[in-house]
Design a protein that fits this description.
The complex is a heterotrimer. Chain A has helices at 4-13, 15-39, 45-60, 63-78, 84-110, 113-121, 126-156, 168-179, 184-217, 223-231. Chain A is mainly α. Chain A is flat, with a radius of gyration of 21 Å. Chain B has eight helices and no strands. Chain B has helices at residues 6-46, 50-64, 68-81, 88-113, 117-125, 130-160, 172-183, 187-216. Chain C is of the alpha/beta class. Chain C is 39% helix and 26% strand. Chain C is built from ten helices and twelve strands. Classes of the chains: A mainly alpha, B mainly alpha, C alpha/beta. Chains in contact: A-B, B-C. Chains A and B meet through helix 3, helix 4, helix 7, helix 8 and helix 9 of A and helix 3, helix 4, helix 6, helix 7 and helix 8 of B.
Chain lengths: 235, 217, 265
């Protein structure tokens, strides 16, 4: 416990890269989830196929492989060496975006058929229908699953330590363990606590979004959405 | 240097396949641990014993919400200090198994909760002992329901095994990196490694999805 | 058996000052009543009056907050530990409760077993019967309820009425002294109700089992029971043989209830 004042600052040094990777990863994930998710619902076959290839390709391979591929192989193919943190954000977004696409697709499909029919009866265009009626209702259903997905993403940022990004896990493993070998339990407990706090923050943010989104639509996520978030095995 | 050398690719394939076997072995052992331990935790939590239940809840939440890699490092570095020396592979299996047991316990709990209250009451009305109520009535109804979710987690574990290269476990991605750094040709080893995962996990997840659809019908 | 001889024997069920609360809501208030061996008693009254709670207490699905319950001379709700009466533990409950069987509104057959499986499960696991004995008993009981040919069928292949008859057979397989019936026809299609009620009337005639039924079927209550207990707000407000209670109820509340129920039928 005496080394606490020396351990904590080192761990906190890792916080900015972790947060940047998380925020960047979430942003890219949301973008790709909606793009690919809506593409999976497109009436055009080739759009659906393209999206399906992306989704199955990134879901079916290991995130570590994807990370190493983008960091080691891509430079060899296109001659551009990516900054590790950027490569990390890219992989986090691509990988979790593939899972997010299924969440978006599932949620949009769960909106009752009656809503579509009402839009047709009111002569709304497909784009208006999606933007004004379907998506707002679908978003409420998506939020519990996205909450889980974002926490998965946060946990995945620890993998970036494998390509030399100086985030929390790397700080702990590379600096603290060699230097403060006797305080191993303390070091790792602190590391885990940092991640725990961050995941609580994410959940709090998502709950806030849930309330706002539900308020605008007049309800809360269905029990089915909450149960699905637990039992479908996020990855 | 050409982008892809087929000769080199076929040259490294056997080594990668051998390393893939290690990956599969770890997945199998880790899954058994996760599936068994998760069930035990779920059943114990059903009993709702006052202090134990809260402690289990806290442990499950803590392990579930924090990175697997950190937990694996923890086991790898901390256990020797308590006099327990295990091979990297064993530490890896342990880390994966414990981490995924928290996921499977939640899945089992959902399945158990879904069994109608009336089944518990009918078993009580027939004075069936608690153990028989579990093995004869509740679990036969709870587990088939959640097999797809459990299957998905086994597939997820398979894809997270490469994490263990951080503690020098010689699984397929570690092997690919090793091969690549000897020849400075990373394209073929990593691409093959990625494809090997795809070739195994995609059909598996299609099977799981089919199982899910058949249940829903 | 002549009534006088029955009353001389120890009562089968005794509720003595039983109180049951759910949170702030008091469902049963210092309830006293007894049931003699072999007696058929029907409990009627509005929802929430505590009738089902009585059955659930007997089944030890709930625990009493006050008072005691005795079944067949043994105390169900409490046990003696070093000369002091303490709330019964699971093992004691299970021992005493073996003499009581229950048939539920929702049948609650085990969907992961066949009809045969449902019937032999408890006799083999709890009573220690051999597989042959349990099977023989199952066949006998299914014949009694008129479903002998369905022995290897799956519960999902049976109609509601058939499932309930299997549930009755399952309860009888334990050779209970007491059979609790909790609105056993309320979840059935109207045309299937008669079949189940006739079976129960038949059982009532053929066996010495003590019956305690919660029911809304007044016609059944009238010809099946020896006594009818009218419940309201956790208390017995009237306790009389059916002929008396149905034609000349003494309490206003009973009159109101019967008017509402019978007129609607």
């Amino acid at each position: 416990m005496d080394n606490l004042p020396r351990i904590v600052p080192v761990l906190l040094q890792g916080l900015p890269p972790t947060v940047i990777a998380t925020v960047g990863g979430i942003a890219l994930t949301v973008l790709l989830s909606f793009l690919a998710g809506l593409a999976l619902l497109s009436p055009r076959r080739w759009v659906r196929a393209l999206s399906r290839v992306y989704v199955e390709g990134f879901r079916g391979t290991s995130e570590v492989v994807q990370l190493f591929w983008i960091y080691f192989v891509l430079p060899l193919l296109v001659g551009v060496q990516l900054v590790p943190l950027f490569a990390g954000v890219l992989v986090l977004g691509l990988n979790h975006g593939a899972y997010g696409a299924e969440i978006v697709r599932g949620a949009v499909r769960s909106v009752p058929r009656a809503q579509y029919e009402a839009c047709v009866a009111l002569s709304l265009s497909p784009a208006q229908r999606m933007r004004r009626v379907i998506l707002p209702q679908a978003v409420v259903e998506m939020l519990p699953s996205f909450n889980n997905l974002f926490i998965q993403l946060l946990k995945s940022t620890s993998i970036l330590s494998l390509i030399t990004v100086a985030e929390v896990t790397q700080r702990g493993r590379a600096v603290l363990v060699p230097a403060f070998g006797d305080d191993i339990v303390l070091i790792f407990t602190l590391m885990l606590l940092i991640y725990l706090v961050l995941s609580v923050l994410i959940t709090a943010g998502m709950r806030f979004l849930e309330r706002t989104a539900a308020g605008r639509v007049g309800r809360r996520p269905s029990r089915a959405a909450r149960v699905a978030a637990v039992t479908t095995g996020a990855r | 240097m050409p982008a892809w050398d087929w000769g080199y690719a076929f040259e490294v394939l056997p080594q990668l396949l051998r390393a893939l076997l290690v990956t599969l072995e770890i997945t199998l052992l880790g899954s058994v641990l996760a599936l068994v331990l998760g069930l035990v935790v779920a059943v114990v939590r059903q009993a709702r014993i006052p202090v134990l239940d809260q402690v289990l809840w806290a442990l499950v939440e803590f392990v579930r919400s924090t990175p697997l890699l950190v937990q694996v490092f923890f086991l790898y570095f901390a256990l020797p200090r308590f006099g327990i020396t295990l091979s990297a592979l064993t530490v890896g299996v342990l880390g994966l198994g414990l981490h995924y047991a928290t996921y499977t316990s939640e899945v089992y709990r959902a399945g158990i909760e879904a069994v109608p209250r009336g089944q518990w009451e009918a078993a009580a009305a027939l004075s069936l002992p608690r153990s028989r109520t579990w093995t004869g009535v509740i679990l036969p109804q709870a587990i088939p329901r959640v097999l797809p979710a459990l299957g998905n987690y086994v597939i997820s574990m398979f894809k997270e095994v490469p994490l263990l290269l951080a503690i020098s476990v010689v699984e397929v991605v570690n092997k690919a990196q090793e091969i690549g750094s000897q020849t400075f040709r990373f394209t073929e080893p990593f691409t093959i490694a990625g494809l090997l995962f795809l070739v195994l996990s995609y059909p598996a997840s299609v099977l799981v999805r089919r199982l899910e659809r058949r249940r829903a019908a | 058996m002549p009534p006088e001889t029955e009353r001389e024997r120890e009562p089968m069920i005794v509720f003595d000052g039983v109180t049951k609360r759910f949170g702030d809501h008091v469902v049963l208030r210092e309830l006293d009543f007894t049931v003699a061996p072999g007696e058929h008693v029907c409990l009627i009254g509005p929802s929430g009056s505590g009738k089902t709670t009585i059955l659930r207490l007997l089944m030890t699905l709930e625990k009493v907050d006050g008072g005691t319950i005795r079944v067949g001379g043994q105390c169900l709700s409490h046990m003696e530990r070093r000369g002091v009466l303490v709330p019964a533990d699971d093992k004691h409950c299970r021992d005493v409760r073996k003499r009581i069987g229950m048939v539920f509104q929702q049948f609650n057959l085990f969907p992961n077993m066949t009809v045969r499986g449902n019937l032999v499960e408890a006799p083999t696991r709890v009573l220690g019967l051999s597989a042959d004995e349990a099977n023989a008993r199952a066949v006998e009981l299914l014949e009694l309820v008129g479903l002998a040919e369905k022995i290897d069928a799956h519960p999902t292949q049976l109609s509601g009425g058939q499932q309930q008859r299997v549930a009755i057979a399952r309860a009888l397989a334990m050779r209970p002294d007491v059979l609790l019936l909790d609105e056993v026809t309320s979840a059935l299609d109207p045309e299937l109700v008669a079949g189940v009620l006739n079976l129960l009337r038949d059982l009532g005639r053929r066996t010495d089992i003590t019956f305690l039924c919660v029911t809304h079927e007044m016609g059944f209550a009238r010809d099946f029971s020896d006594r009818v207990l009218m419940f309201d707000a956790g208390q017995v407000i009237e306790d009389a043989p059916p002929a008396e209670l149905f034609s000349t109820p003494s309490q206003q509340r009973t009159k109101d209830f019967l008017h509402a129920v019978v007129d609607r039928a």
